[in-house]
Recover the amino acids of this structure.
């Protein structure tokens, strides 16, 4: 975009005012500029380099001023530059590109070599063309069995296989060495021959040129000028944009031979939230307020740009009020995004919330009365300490971990009831004694022994089949929060993980073997030192390797899992501690700092990296004391904010401007109903044998086996524990749940047989006291004057059917949103 | 790789050969030739509903639909002989006389096979029509049909995937589709006078007047509470409560009310849980529910097989024959698929030694399934076992062949996609991926 020169003014001192690219924006003062890249070189006829000019303003903020810069080549017979700063080679030589913007000038040196050379290799030149043209997408040849008998690897994860597919398979018909321009791959791509995918490469385009040159050169795998790509970087790496503003991007790839090249035109871009920022043609446009990540991929490398688009804050932005450093970090991000936080929750709101989030049950009326009457200024912190020490804390978090570790008797986990009991017992014990988290992880990963006697040995057993790759994927998901499993079938779309990475991680578990005993369904996990994981395609032994790490040579009598556990729990491991602190944040706050919490990867950046790093360091420094993290989060003002939105933060869900109200989870719901009515459920499991029956006072949050029958829990979204993903738990409302609360026999039975209600009715207590007790039991607060009045009216009009009237009141309270939601 | 020469499928590593693509283009690898595929694509999809009769535990085929009277007592046990049916050449077990008179309505698939003998895995295989993979936990066929045909019951408020009356519990049924596609299981015994569906019918003792009073009370409680109205979730709670009252006060529950049936009809189905469940299933089909499964247990007869057969088969005989006849008389058999099978069959050779003393064990190599209605022709046999019933003789039918045939009759494209939470590609019938042995769709009877 060019700015009308009449807007330009020259002032003494070299400071210019200029109109911003977006209409109606205030004029800015550019103090200095920064040009990316520095001096560069262009190699080969297809090389090009984008120039990005960033203006630094007086307040330190950055603006992309490339659209208003002018570019000139000192010798356009060597290198040409166009209006938008794209430099292309013309002839071998060296020259300067000069640019000027806002009164600043800069010169870049450019060296051109091989300006007429069109060396194309499959690995580096053709593969990106296929990706960009969509040839290997899931809808086309990247489909599970390809299209029209051509199968390419999805997302280009296996370039060697793709090369074979194009050059060697199909009797070599796709590539015609005697008449290259008649090669089937070219004819189809240009739709010269009938191609149901249409014309993907247009003659004259760069992609078409690359493909024809490659064919002319005999379709080589690689070429002399080429080297393997080592890394990909994206400029800028983070930027705050105003709504409507655009930002050009520069993606640069570095190769093993030291070459560095602009690959923006060949790379594939993706926005994590197009409503916030959209990306097209190497340019980002900020469409709405919020955070977004722009991911660029090229040759299975990825890089990310973090875009923040703040909203206009209100005039009186609230001051920072901090209970601990967590609040300072959250507040800094809120201020930067222009989102004022909500106010503090009331005592009653906090009381009910912290009980549910920490121990999964409601406070008793007596506990509620005591807390609401407490005048100690530290009452909230004291309550948190008390709750962290209660037995119910261990129960509730054993349930959470049971979901992650998939403690379940039946398909697909199939550890059977005996192992479920042993596994759960170990888990519960570990949480109760606050075992350091790194030790906890190590025990799970490296355990051996009978799965009926050694609880953690079930970790390698709790996979649908006994494939080491699946165990590795499970370990990656649970302990790193990484969806490495996506890369099992195909290269990960946004990360550089490939099926080879999954295989190499699986190799750590390659020596695990299982033997059965005379006891039915028991299996002993042992180390078979002669076993090694072999690549299913090449039958070669796979060396264990962590993602982006070096292969590890496992000694002849070594358990490679120990090395994996050591790598994982090392203090500087970027995944281990971040994963668990992010998960705990997610469990307590409803949204993770990285969301989804089990999708941690560089291209899914945290909404608040400083906060995540602070919590990570706190965990490591406290010797992996998980309760320390709970305490930090629960005591923060951020956790204790009201769930009521103000007009500025109503749309925000990612920055913790208020507490996220959510429906009670399945187990919390059942226990809450049982608690209010003082009834219980008899849990049992008759599939499989041996049958399991739990004592009648067992709470839902104490259930160990994912196979326990309970229609209520299924209806309210209890996870089936088939996979460790957090999303398996479904806390959404549904029509059936509403029908249950409004109209079910089971709930009616709980109301009519409720010992609490019977006691209240039999006692000589007044209607007021009864209504108070009901509200305290279910909602952890006293009713307001108006509520009391209305309910006393209702009860007063039904003195002859008093028991039923009291049940109606409890029924109404249980159906209210305040009961069904944790707010 | 599929063997081009015939329907028998071999299993070789290395995926699918190019020639098989050429057979049907990129479309189907379920053992079809191009002509068959085109014909099927053009064929109408008559079925609207499926009633799956699930015999949990694995029902014996030798005593039911694949008798081997000439194999000797080691195989027949005390149930020697077989009954001729009203279709020449088809014989079934001696304890099923009523079904013998209706053999023109159903087809017996004697070539079912999947070679798995574990209850939970075989149940997963038969109910989902897939082999277990580590990548995906598949939803059951019922959940997929419920998902695809949800609009058939959207206005009535009935759930599209109903289990009578308790879920199996072996696996999660909804698989990766998620919790909202789980089956609806009302619980209880339809044969009992107290049978009512949780949530739809008001609890005993709650009169319509009380419902109204409570509703008003709830309204005031909500209005007076100091909670903000601005959160989206609260809005959807209101919406659901409105819809729920619509159902409670409306007619949806009438489908579950068996007192509306004449006694003679109820007697004919049999006054037992299974019989009345079949009758209830017929009513639900009339109300438009696309998939109903009835779970009947007690078929895992490692011991006392023949006592169990004497007890259970008359119940099955009465109920299933009543169901088929009733559907036919009401003109519903053409649009309702009825299936009868379990996770596997049972050993043809009777285990007479201690501690079994006359039991049969698991047999996944070859067993039987019965299909009727909804576009399936009746009075046929598909596949066969050898003289003793121990090995497959010809025309294997794999669980995915059966499920793909059912999808076809319902007008659901087996190559269609299912929504996966991570955006993975999942087909309605994973056999569309092609790398599985297949006997082919049941084109002989479609």
């Amino acid at each position: 975009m060019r700015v009308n020169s009449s807007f330009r003014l020259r002032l003494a001192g070299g400071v210019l005012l200029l109109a911003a690219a977006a209409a109606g924006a205030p004029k800015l003062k550019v103090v200095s500029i920064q040009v990316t890249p520095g001096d560069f070189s262009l190699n080969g006829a297809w090389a090009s380099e984008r120039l990005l000019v960033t203006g630094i303003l007086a307040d330190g903020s950055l603006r992309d001023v490339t659209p208003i810069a002018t570019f000139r080549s000192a010798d356009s017979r060597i290198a040409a530059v166009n209006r938008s700063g794209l430099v292309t080679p013309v002839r071998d030589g060296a020259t300067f590109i000069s640019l000027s913007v806002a009164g600043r000038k800069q010169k870049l040196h450019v060296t051109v070599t091989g300006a007429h050379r069109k060396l194309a290799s499959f690995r580096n030149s053709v593969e990106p063309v296929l990706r960009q043209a969509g040839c290997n997408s899931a809808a086309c040849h990247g489909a599970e069995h390809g299209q029209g008998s051509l199968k390419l690897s999805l997302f280009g994860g296996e370039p060697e296989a793709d090369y074979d597919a194009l050059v060697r398979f199909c009797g070599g018909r796709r590539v015609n060495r005697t008449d290259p321009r008649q090669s089937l791959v070219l004819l189809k791509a240009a739709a010269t021959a009938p191609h149901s995918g249409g014309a993907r490469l247009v003659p004259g385009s760069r992609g078409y040129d690359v493909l024809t040159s490659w064919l002319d050169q005999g379709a080589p795998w690689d070429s002399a000028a080429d080297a393997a790509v080592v890394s990909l970087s994206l400029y800028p790496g983070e930027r705050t944009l105003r709504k409507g503003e655009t930002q050009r991007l520069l993606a640069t790839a570095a190769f093993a031979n030291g070459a560095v090249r602009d690959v923006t035109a060949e790379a594939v871009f993706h926005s994590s939230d197009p409503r916030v920022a959209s990306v097209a043609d190497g340019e980002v446009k900020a469409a709405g307020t919020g955070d977004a990540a722009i991911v660029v991929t090229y040759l299975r490398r990825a890089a990310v740009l973090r875009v923040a688009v703040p909203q206009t804050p209100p005039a009186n932005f609230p001051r920072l009020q901090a209970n601990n450093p967590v609040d300072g970090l959250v507040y800094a991000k809120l201020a930067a995004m222009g989102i004022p936080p909500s106010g503090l929750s009331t005592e009653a709101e906090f009381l009910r919330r912290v009980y549910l989030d920490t121990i999964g049950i409601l406070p008793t009326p007596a506990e509620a009365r005591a807390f609401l009457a407490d005048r100690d200024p530290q009452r909230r912190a004291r309550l948190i300490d008390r709750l962290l020490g209660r037995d119910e804390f261990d129960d509730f978090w054993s349930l959470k971990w049971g979901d992650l570790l998939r403690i379940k008797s039946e398909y697909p986990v199939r550890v059977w009831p005996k192992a479920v009991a042993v596994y759960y017992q170990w888990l519960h014990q570990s949480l109760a004694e606050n075992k350091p988290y790194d030790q906890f992880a190590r025990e799970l990963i490296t355990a051996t022994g009978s799965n009926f006697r050694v609880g953690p040995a079930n970790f390698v057993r709790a996979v649908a089949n006994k494939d080491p790759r699946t165990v590795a994927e499970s370990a990656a998901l649970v302990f790193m929060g990484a969806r490495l499993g996506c890369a099992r079938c195909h290269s990960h779309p946004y990360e550089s993980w490939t099926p080879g990475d999954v295989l190499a991680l699986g190799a750590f578990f390659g020596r695990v073997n299982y033997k059965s005993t005379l006891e039915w369904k028991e299996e002993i996990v042992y180390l078979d030192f002669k076993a090694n994981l072999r690549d299913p395609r090449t039958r070669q032994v796979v060396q264990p390797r962590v993602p982006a790490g070096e292969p590890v040579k496992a000694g002849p009598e070594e358990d490679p899992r120990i090395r994996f556990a050591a790598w994982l729990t090392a203090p500087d491991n970027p995944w281990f501690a971040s994963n668990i602190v992010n998960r705990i944040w997610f469990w307590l706050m409803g949204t993770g700092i990285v969301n989804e919490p089990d999708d941690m990867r560089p291209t899914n950046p945290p909404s608040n990296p400083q906060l995540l790093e602070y919590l990570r360091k706190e965990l490591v420094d406290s010797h992996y004391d998980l309760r320390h993290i709970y305490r930090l989060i629960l005591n923060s003002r951020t956790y204790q904010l009201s769930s009521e939105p103000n007009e500025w933060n109503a749309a925000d869900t990612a920055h913790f401007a208020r507490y996220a109200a959510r429906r009670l989870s399945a187990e919390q719901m059942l226990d809450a109903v049982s608690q209010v009515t003082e009834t219980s459920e008899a849990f049992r499991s008759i599939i499989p044998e041996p049958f399991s029956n739990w004592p009648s006072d067992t709470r839902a949050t104490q259930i160990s086996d994912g196979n326990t029958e309970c229609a209520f829990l299924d209806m309210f979204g209890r996870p089936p524990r088939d996979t460790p993903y957090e999303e398996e738990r479904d806390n959404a409302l549904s029509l059936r749940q509403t029908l249950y609360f409004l109209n079910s026999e089971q709930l009616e039975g709980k109301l009519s047989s409720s010992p609490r209600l019977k006691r209240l009715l039999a006692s000589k207590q007044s209607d007021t006291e009864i209504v108070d007790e009901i509200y305290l039991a279910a909602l952890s607060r006293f009713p307001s004057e108006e509520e009391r009045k209305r309910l006393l009216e209702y009860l007063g009009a039904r003195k002859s059917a008093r028991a039923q009237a009291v049940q109606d009141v409890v029924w109404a309270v249980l159906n209210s949103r305040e009961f069904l939601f944790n707010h | 790789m599929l063997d081009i020469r015939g329907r028998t499928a071999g299993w070789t590593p290395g995926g699918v050969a190019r020639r098989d693509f050429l057979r049907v283009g990129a479309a189907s690898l379920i053992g079809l030739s191009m002509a068959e595929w085109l014909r099927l694509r053009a064929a109408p999809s008559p079925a609207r509903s499926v009633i799956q009769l699930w015999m949990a535990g694995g029902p014996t085929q030798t005593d039911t639909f694949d008798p081997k009277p000439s194999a000797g007592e080691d195989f027949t046990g005390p149930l020697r002989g077989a009954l001729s049916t009203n279709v020449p050449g088809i014989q079934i077990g001696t304890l099923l006389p009523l079904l013998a008179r209706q053999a023109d309505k159903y087809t017996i698939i004697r070539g079912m096979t999947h070679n798995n003998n574990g209850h939970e895995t075989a149940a997963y295989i038969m109910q989902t029509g897939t082999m277990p993979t580590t990548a995906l936990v598949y939803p059951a066929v019922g959940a997929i049909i419920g998902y695809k045909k949800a609009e058939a019951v959207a206005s009535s408020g009935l759930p599209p995937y109903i289990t009578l009356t308790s879920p199996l519990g072996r696996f999660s049924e909804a698989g990766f589709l998620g919790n909202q596609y789980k089956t609806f299981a009302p619980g209880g015994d339809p044969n009992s006078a107290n049978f009512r569906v949780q949530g739809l019918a008001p609890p005993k003792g709650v009169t319509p007047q009380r419902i109204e009073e409570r509703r008003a009370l709830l309204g005031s409680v909500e209005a007076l509470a100091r909670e903000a109205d601005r959160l989206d979730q609260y809005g959807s709670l209101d919406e659901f409560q409105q819809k729920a009252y619509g159902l409670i006060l409306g007619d949806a529950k009438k489908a579950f009310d068996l007192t509306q049936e004449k006694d003679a009809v109820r007697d004919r189905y049999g006054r037992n849980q299974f019989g009345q469940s079949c009758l209830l299933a017929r009513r639900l089909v009339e109300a438009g529910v696309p998939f109903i499964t009835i779970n009947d247990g007690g078929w895992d007869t490692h011991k006392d097989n023949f006592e169990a057969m004497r007890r259970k088969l008359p119940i099955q005989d009465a109920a299933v024959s009543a169901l088929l006849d009733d559907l036919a008389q009401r003109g519903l058999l053409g649009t309702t698929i009825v299936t009868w099978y379990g996770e596997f069959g049972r050993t043809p050779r009777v285990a007479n030694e201690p501690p079994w003393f006359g039991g049969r064990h698991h047999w996944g190599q070859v067993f039987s399934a019965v299909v009727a209605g909804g576009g399936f022709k009746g009075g046929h046999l598909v596949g066969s076992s050898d003289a003793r019933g121990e090995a497959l003789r010809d025309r294997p039918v794999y669980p995915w062949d059966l499920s793909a045939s059912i999808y076809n009759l319902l007008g659901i494209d087996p190559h269609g996609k299912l929504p996966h939470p991570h955006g993975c590609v999942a087909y309605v019938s994973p056999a569309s991926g092609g790398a599985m042995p297949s006997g082919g769709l049941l084109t002989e009877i479609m």
